[in-house]
Amino acid sequence: MEKTMQKVAKESFMSWNRIEEIILDVKPLFDAASDAICIQNVEGEIIYRNPYYEKMIKRGNRELVEDERYIYHNDRQAGKIVVYHDLSEINRLKRELDRLNQKLRKVQVKYSFKDIIGKNKELLKVVNTAKIAAMTPATIMIRGESGTGKEIFANAIHNNSPRRNEKFIKINCSSLPEELLESELFGYKEGAFTGARRGGKRGLFQEADRGTLFLDEIGDISSRMQVKLLRVLQEKEVMPVGSTETVPVDVRIICATNKPLEEMIEEGAFREDLYYRLNVFPLFIPPLRERREDIGLITEYLLNQYNEFYNRNISEIEPDGIDLLQQREWYGNVRELENVLSRALINMEEKDVVLTKAEIASALSGENVRNGKKTAQEKESNFTFPNNLKEALEMVESRCIEEAISRHKGDKNKAANDLGIPLRTLYYKCKKLNI
Ligand SMILES: Nc1ncnc2c1ncn2[C@@H]1O[C@H](COP(=O)(O)OP(=O)(O)OP(=O)(O)O)[C@@H](O)[C@H]1O
User: Fold this and answer.
1) Per-residue confidence (pLDDT) for residue 34, from 0 to 100
2) Are residues 324 and 335 both part of a single domain?
3) Which ligand 1 atom minimizes the distance to the CA of 155?
4) Are 281 and 293 in a shared domain?
5) Pick from 286, 311, 346: which residue ends a domain?
6) Which SUPFAM superfamilies does the entry mention (predicted)?
7) Max avg pLDDT among 62-71, 203-212, 395-404
8) Where are the alpha helices (DSSP H) in 33-140?
9) Which range, 11-20, 54-63, 154-163, 199-208, is most confident?
10) Is 176 inside any structural domain?
11) Is the CB of 147 under 6 A from ligand 1?
12) Residues 119 and 231 in one domain
């Protein structure tokens, strides 16, 4: 279309009749165009309009951009061709794309600061600092025991940052062996190793370009990975495995750990230079036992969610029940509280509206008062192996895992270490064995 317009407009030395002839030549093309076209003489009178132009006038379409070319005759302006590009369809598709992107972002980033429940002074201070930190590009290090909400904080910070419309990618650094973690983070070139994918693979740093990368359990990375990570943070570029070329990346790092990094530096297990690169904006989330006043609030919040999830109708909790929850040490923090409440609700019935102290006590001890399910000790005394070997092995596996987790007061990292299996395998087994 552009070429045809230029051709018509360029016939500057020809007579108006000749121009009309040319217009006649290209008329079939203009007639078939899906843009609105009109040709005007020097007085502005329309001497030709294509069918799409007529349609557009009838529809009163306003989402248009205009493009015009003057027609010259003996160096004098003889008229012009005007093309109106209809943007309504493009705009409709753009709106649809924005809507889908919004939806996708909601799936990717689950939490915002309003999902962090609590009124404890220390917690509120952390939330405020996190909100300030979110607006800066600084690297953030989130510290806190397991289940204190480090991941929620990381999500909320991304969601409140100027990068909120870009990707938020999380990786648990302790869940993968070193080589796999390296290729996940930095990507690899085709043929980098046996089994490498054809065409290579982009690493998470590249995937998170312009967005945020959340490195969970950062205290668990090997010395070699610490060096590689330090290099990326200093140079702002990654070198995929098997490649000699670097790729620039613009990624905001949030990391988290419950490991005593300062002690690890003393012992030579964590690099001091990397620590300072990561610890630009430290946030310490207090454990639940140091903010007991939040237990009631979080319990109410979780019950609302679980009512829907388990199809229950609990609208009240006995005050004595809350007292009981507040007396607990909560080494597994909010995650442990979630488990106890889930257990309590599962054992209740649809018609129940009050969560009683007895039900809470029962959920805390893992015993079911209603159905007379057996306690751990009772299970112990009646313990017999099933005949089926697979079931017997699973039973032993379950017991070992349960004991390791309870020995370490819910800390799955330590339990996995003790059991001699990677944390990822432990999570997989817990899911499979319903632990
Ligand atoms: N203040 C809070 N308000 C509401 N829910 C919370 C809060 N803190 C934690 N949770 C919930 O507790 C669970 C554990 O939180 P999260 O996974 O963020 O903890 P974490 O510190 O990252 O744990 P880990 O170190 O074991 O990975 C999540 O389901 C989260 O929604």
Assistant:
1) 82
2) yes
3) 18
4) no
5) 286
6) Homeodomain-like, P-loop containing nucleoside triphosphate hydrolases
7) 203-212
8) 51-59, 88-108, 121-134
9) 154-163
10) yes
11) yes
12) yes
Mutate which of 335, 339, 340, 411 for ligand 1? The one with the most ligand atoms within 8 Å of its CB, which is: 335
Please work out whether the CB of residue 144 comes within 6 Å of at least one atom of ligand 1: yes
Is residue 264 situated within a structural domain? yes
Task: Note whether ipTM > 0.95 here.
Answer: yes
Residue 97 lies in a domain: no
pLDDT of residue 386: 67
289-295 LR contacts (CB < 8 Å, sep 24+): 289/328, 289/329, 289/330, 289/331, 290/120, 290/122, 291/118, 291/120, 291/122, 291/123, 292/326, 293/119, 293/120, 294/117, 294/118, 294/119, 294/120, 294/123, 295/322, 295/325, 295/326, 295/330, 295/337
Q: How far does the centroid of ligand 1 lie from the alpha carbon of residue 148, in Å?
A: 5
Q: Residue 43 pLDDT > 90, yes or no?
A: no
Ligand 1: residue of 152, 288, 295, 337 to mutate (most ligand atoms within 8 A of CB) is: 152
Question: What is residue 376's predicted lDDT score, i.e. its pLDDT?
Answer: 44
CATH number for position 35: 3.30.450
In a domain, 159, yes or no: yes
Query: Which atom belonging to ligand 1 lies closest to the Cα atom of 148?
Result: 21
239 Cβ contact partners less than 8 Å away, ≥ 6 residues apart = 186, 245, 246, 247
Q: Count structural domains, the chain.
A: 4
Give residue 365's pLDDT.
81
Residue-level pLDDT at 199: 74
Better-predicted residue by pLDDT, 255 or 391:
255
Give the pLDDT band of residue 13 (cuts 50, 70, 90). very low
- Answer for the pair 149, 334: CB distance below 8 angstroms, yes or no: yes
Same domain, 15 and 128: no
User: Considering 53, 88, 123, which residue would you say is the last residue of a domain?
Assistant: 88
* Residue 152 beta carbon below 6 angstroms from any ligand 1 atom: yes
User: Does one domain contain both 393 and 299?
Assistant: no
187/175: higher pLDDT: 187
Most confident region among 42-46, 181-185, 274-278, 346-350 by mean pLDDT: 274-278
Domain range enclosing 210: 109-286
Atom index in ligand 1 nearest the CA of residue 151 equals 18
Is the domain of 293 the same as that of 278? Answer: no
Short-list 47, 8, 10, 13, CA closest to 29: 8
Tokens of 205: 């740093």
Q: Do residue 372 and residue 401 come from a single domain?
A: no
